[in-house]
Every structure is written in structure tokens, then in C-alpha cells.
Specification:
alpha/beta; Rossmann fold; five-stranded parallel β-sheet; binds ribose-5-phosphate
């Protein structure tokens, strides 16, 4: 593998890793991943990676700790097999919402994950639509932050929705929503969301005009589905016409699918940073970011610009 590059994956999302390989016209690096009788991860890389530029594609989605540990062990394995450079490709970065001390005596787990990935032996990292952009700075190794916007935006552009307002379901998402509104030539509105617990929220008001307008609600992730379905209800209450969801990461935990199906939604558009594993439903559309990841990996391998991918 000298001067060549290889792509490996754990068990989190082999289909995405395979899609990335297909986009690059290479085969997925062979591994054997099982569990010891006590549940520990038993892993072996079945390729010679000495001197190689290798990429480990593994979202740290649920089961978060299993997938994270597999990622770390795979990196360790490649390092000990003398790979020249290892890039952790983490399309969905678990623990991203624990990015600051929101109250006393809580951890900053997003930083701990960055430390773990680096300590395992990664030389670079890459992720998509980090919940908090500052997580990039949690890494003391080069970290490329990609955006799924080109993939999602292309879909919404071809829908040619008239009288369009892009809505952020909370104040934290304004920057992302503004970027979508600008590119789609749409108006911008914001929901005033208050969180009263990890799964409870209060949707206070919609700031901006959604009455008689088609709406695209933009968010980085759908976890329990509470934020987005409540935001959709608030928009409908304020007279919105068709309501679409545009979100990068479909975590879909707990009763998310049930909540989304009950919400007044025309279509929910997400990417495949996380496998859906049977959670598909009739108005859920999944767009693949495999090509985008493949192109980013190609550029990293050839030391080309990543930022120009988004201009
Ligand atoms: C919030 O800050 C995020 O951008 C998402 O809106 C939130 O994490 C989604 O969580 P849930 O689906 O559980 O409301």
C-alpha cells in the first residue's frame, strides 16, 4: 500500500463506507470484526497498510459507545500496522451536544472524544455538519469540517418551491438556516424554542412570516424528533402551507419516527451519515453524502483544498 490509500470501516455504517469506495473506484479495505465472548471488540485488518494513507469511515451514531470504541480500536490497529497517515472520517460525531459546561459538574464529552481519537493515533479527522462548529478546535490535529448543504440544497433547488421561507427551529441554528435561505433565495424565520429537559421543549413563537408560505425547516440533526415536529406545528399554526424538513443527521432515537409521522410534514429530507436500519417511512427521503466524502478524501490524499468544495 506504499503511497496508496485505503478505506476501512467498522460495523457502524458499512453501506456508506462502500458508497465512498465506489465513488473513488476502489474496494473497501478488508477487516474481520467480531466480539470476544465477554463483549470486547476483536478486530483484525486483513490488508498490508504499511506506509499507506488510510481512512476509517465510522459515524459514532447509536450504539454510540460501541461505534466509538470500534473506531478507536481500528485506528490503533492501523497505527500498529505502520500506516503512514490515518484519517478518522466521522460523518456523524456522537457526543457533539456535550460541547460546553452548560451547568456545574458536567463533562465536555465532545472534547474527550476528540482527545480519544487523537490518542488512538489519528493524524487527521473529518466530520460533517458538527452540532457545534467549535468542536473542530477541540482537535489538535487537522480537522476538516464538511457541510452536507451542497447535497441537500441541490434537492430543494430542483423542487422550485414558490413563496419559500427557511425556518430555523431554534436560535442556535440561525447561521445554518441563513445560509440555506440565501442559496435558495428564500425568506428567513426562527422558532423561539426553550428546552425544559433532554426530551421536553416549549415552542414559544415563530419570529418572521410563515403565513401562506411554503416552509423548509433546517436543522443539523433529528434526535427524538421533538424540536422539529414542534417547530412544524408552530409553523402550521401560523398558517404555513407545505412544510419540509431538511436535516443532515437522522439519529431518530426513541419515538422519533412516530412523532415525525404525526407532524404536519410534506417531506423529511435527511442524509445517510447514519444508517436508518429499518426506520424508513413513506415521506422520509435519504440523500447520500458518499460522493461528497469520497471527493473530500480524494482531495486530502492529493493535498488539495477542501474549502473550495463549498464555494
Ligand atoms: C439542537 O440544538 C439541535 O440542533 C437539534 O435541534 C436537536 O438536538 C434535535 O433534538 P430532538 O430531535 O431530540 O429535539
Amino acid at each position: 500500500m506504499k503511497n496508496a490509500f485505503g478505506i476501512f470501516t467498522g460495523t457502524a455504517h458499512p453501506a456508506l463506507a462502500k458508497g465512498v469506495c465506489d465513488s473513488l473506484g476502489i474496494s473497501l479495505g478488508r477487516t474481520e470484526i467480531t466480539r470476544f465472548p465477554d463483549g470486547e471488540i476483536d478486530l483484525k485488518v486483513l490488508e498490508d497498510v504499511r506506509g499507506g494513507d488510510v481512512y476509517v469511515v465510522q459515524p459514532t451514531c447509536p450504539p454510540v459507545n460501541e461505534n466509538l470504541m470500534e473506531l478507536l480500536i481500528l485506528i490503533d490497529c492501523l497505527r500498529r500496522a505502520s500506516a503512514e497517515r490515518i484519517t478518522a472520517v466521522i460523518p456523524y460525531y456522537g457526543y457533539a451536544r456535550q460541547d460546553r459546561k452548560a451547568e456545574a459538574r458536567v463533562p465536555i464529552s465532545a472534547k474527550l472524544v476528540a482527545n480519544l481519537v487523537t490518542a488512538a493515533g489519528a493524524h487527521r479527522a473529518l466530520s460533517v455538519d458538527l452540532h457545534a462548529p467549535q468542536i473542530q478546535g477541540f482537535f489538535d490535529i487537522p480537522m476538516d469540517h464538511l457541510y452536507a448543504a451542497p447535497v441537500l440544497m441541490e434537492y430543494f433547488k430542483q423542487l422550485k418551491l414558490p413563496d419559500l421561507t427557511v425556518v430555523s427551529p431554534d436560535v442556535g441554528g440561525i447561521k445554518m438556516a441563513r445560509a440555506y435561505a440565501k442559496r435558495l433565495g428564500a425568506d428567513l424565520a426562527i422558532c423561539d424554542k426553550r428546552r425544559s429537559g433532554p426530551t421536553e421543549i416549549e415552542m414559544m413563537h415563530v419570529i418572521g412570516e410563515v403565513g401562506g408560505r411554503n416552509v423548509v425547516l433546517v436543522d443539523d440533526m433529528i434526535s427524538t424528533g421533538t424540536s422539529i415536529s414542534e417547530a412544524a406545528r408552530a409553523c402550521r399554526k401560523n398558517g404555513a402551507k407545505d412544510i419540509y424538513i431538511c436535516a443532515t443527521h437522522a439519529v431518530l432515537s426513541g419515538k422519533a419516527v412516530e412523532k415525525l409521522q404525526k407532524a404536519p410534514l410534506k417531506e423529511i429530507v435527511v442524509t445517510d451519515t447514519i444508517p436508518l436500519d429499518g426506520k424508513e417511512f413513506h415521506n422520509l427521503r435519504v440523500l447520500s453524502i458518499a460522493k461528497l466524502l469520497g471527493e473530500a478524501i480524494r482531495r486530502i490524499h492529493h493535498s488539495e483544498s477542501i474549502s473550495s468544495l463549498f464555494q
